[in-house]
Design brief:
- The chain has 542 residues and is α+β, with helices and mostly antiparallel strands.
- 24% of the residues lie in helices and 34% in strands.
- It contains 11 helices and 31 strands.
- Strands 3, 15, 16, 17, 19 and 20 form a 6-stranded mixed sheet that branches. Strands 4, 5, 6, 7 and 8 form a 5-stranded antiparallel sheet that branches. Strands 22, 23, 24, 25 and 26 form a 5-stranded antiparallel sheet that branches.
Length: 542
């Protein structure tokens, strides 16, 4: 009878451990072996028939250890310790780790990868600010705020507009018990306009519920739901909340396997899980819907890039010849092909200030391109921007690379201790001493261009090809004061755009009137309002 009770207990313990920890049932994953090892150790202890001596209070072992259980424990220890060393140790498999990222192509100029962009399309809301704005809109719904918490924000393009999106999650077990049909929707925060914040609770007039989520319990837990519905034999990671073009919420889960024994995690596809109905569909990387922005998880790409740079000359390279490492932080950016990429700088091992190049990795296919051009790391750019306003103590957000008038440029926000945006900054990637800051993006762009022009185009000699000169007659001019600075907006005959300049560009601008003949030069870009880099009033004798 005692043996039956022990067996029943071990079966229940095994079931409980499987249900809680969801081990992957495949070679190379150690979870199943660890659970079985725990069961065997418990069984071994139980088989010893231990009792306590009533006089000495010492443990007495009544039976010898079961040799079959001992053999099983030994086999599992070999599987968990020795086999990974043989099949996965870097020293034995250096070439495989170095090639995990695949072929790394060499690009010409990183600026060519990004098309010139209008300043109203620049990303000014980062993840932490998106969370603050999301919390604010949740706080405006008293009944809702006590029931839910905001999930992690992920950035994606929705109908060609950039948004941070986060699900509403249960705030605890009892909140889940009372609302097992799911939490009421999700939050969208525009990445380009901090005033554009939406709480989405209905789609096409129907309520939207996030039933399957990481803060749910039992079969409603998103990981357990997928695991128990036929996906227990593959690795699952990077549970990302995304919405399709109609606003329907999904969980995008990256599937992966081991390429080098017990290591070498590599994405193989995605599971698309309807957050409301729970329906699951597997897609290979090539078949994934186009609206899915990210398939390759950040941690996998960081590891593979570091291995590519670390072992570029093999394992035994203690002198660090040609060794490369990625800079701190990885950003999701969008190229002119409208695809999303993981962006990071590369530095030589031992040199953290100056990048020797930059890498863009397609977030879907993992295609990597290395741009060999020196420049500032993200950290150096942040320090440079913060140094411009050091008396204010603002902190810079993670820089995002853009093409500003054919100049590869880091754009970032400067925030106070409360996390609110107070100013903006632009730093030339090729030379972090060229910095522009301002209270608006327009001011920042004007300041950046001014500093850049004063540098004598030393960082981008070819950019003069993008400049244009124009002689015309002023048809309208008006001044505007922003944050204590005067800007003059004007239009000229036979040219559709609006121009803007200040007395810092030319002392002629404040005394120019309608009908004056002028000569200006400016950068050709996609802006409706164009900053002039030079201004001459031909009616004023000098």
């Amino acid at each position: 009878m005692k043996k039956i009770i022990t067996i029943v207990f071990l079966v229940l313990l095994l079931s409980f451990l499987f249900y809680v920890f969801l081990p992957v049932l495949n070679f190379g994953f150690t979870g199943i072996a660890v659970i079985v090892l725990v069961i065997l150790i418990v069984a071994m202890i139980s088989s010893l028939g231990m009792t306590t001596n009533p006089k000495t209070k010492q443990l007495i072992i009544q039976r010898r250890p079961n040799k079959f259980l001992g053999i099983g424990i030994l086999i599992l220890l070999v599987y968990l310790i020795l086999v990974p060393i043989i099949t996965s140790a870097t020293i034995f498999h250096t070439a495989q780790y170095q090639k995990m990222i695949g072929e790394v192509k060499v690009g010409e100029k990183i600026g060519n990868h990004f098309e010139p962009i209008s300043i109203d399309k620049l990303r000014v809301v980062d993840q932490s600010l998106a969370y603050l704005l999301g919390e604010k809109i949740i706080g405006s719904q008293p009944a809702l705020g006590s029931q839910i918490v905001l999930g992690e924000f992920s950035i994606q393009k929705v109908n060609n507009e950039l948004y941070w999106v986060a699900p509403l999650l249960h705030s605890g077990f009892f909140k889940w018990i009372n609302n097992r049909e799911g939490t009421p929707g999700y939050v969208m925060v525009s990445a380009t306009n901090e005033r554009d914040v939406k709480l989405v609770q209905t789609i096409n007039g129907q309520p939207t519920k996030i039933k399957y989520q990481p803060n749910a319990y039992f079969q409603s837990d998103i990981h357990r739901h997928v695991y128990l519905n036929g996906y227990a034999t593959i690795g699952l990671t990077d549970f990302t909340f995304e919405i399709d073009e109609t606003g329907k919420p999904y969980w995008v889960i990256t599937t992966y396997d081991k390429k080098v024994g017990f290591s070498g995690d590599d994405a193989t596809g995605i599971l698309l899980v309807d957050a409301q109905s729970g329906s699951i569909k597997f897609y290979t990387i090539a078949e994934a819907p186009l609206w899915v922005d990210r398939i390759q998880p950040t941690d996998l790409i960081e590891t593979q890039l570091n291995d590519w740079g670390e072992y570029i000359n093999g394992y035994w390279n203690f002198s660090n010849i040609n060794k490369l490492q990625i800079t701190e932080g990885m950003s999701l950016v969008y190229g002119k092909d409208n695809k999303s990429y993981w962006y990071t700088g590369l530095t030589s091992v031992g040199n953290d200030e100056s990048a020797v190049g930059f890498v863009l990795v397609d977030t879907r296919t993992k295609e990597a391109t290395f741009y060999k051009q020196s420049g500032a790391t993200e950290y150096a750019a942040q320090s440079s921007a913060e140094g411009k306003v050091q008396e204010k103590g603002y902190k810079a957000s993670l820089p995002i690379p853009y093409n500003i008038n054919n100049i590869p440029t880091y754009v970032m926000t400067l925030k106070d201790d409360g996390g609110l945006v107070k100013m903006y900054a632009m730093v030339a990637i090729s030379d972090y001493t060229i910095v522009g800051v301002g209270n608006s993006m327009r001011e920042t762009l004007t300041a950046f261009k001014s500093v850049y022009n004063m540098s004598g185009n030393k960082i981008n000699p070819s950019s003069s090809d993008a400049k244009k000169q124009l002689r015309s007659i002023v048809t309208r001019i008006q001044s505007d004061v922003k944050n204590g600075n005067s800007f003059y907006y004007f239009m000229v005959k036979d040219y559709p755009n609006i121009f803007v300049g200040s007395s810092q560009v030319s002392s002629d601008i404040p005394i120019t009137v309608v009908g004056d003949s002028i000569k200006i030069s400016f950068d050709v870009d996609t802006e409706k309002i164009i900053d002039v880099s030079s201004f001459y009033n031909l009616n004023i004798k000098k």
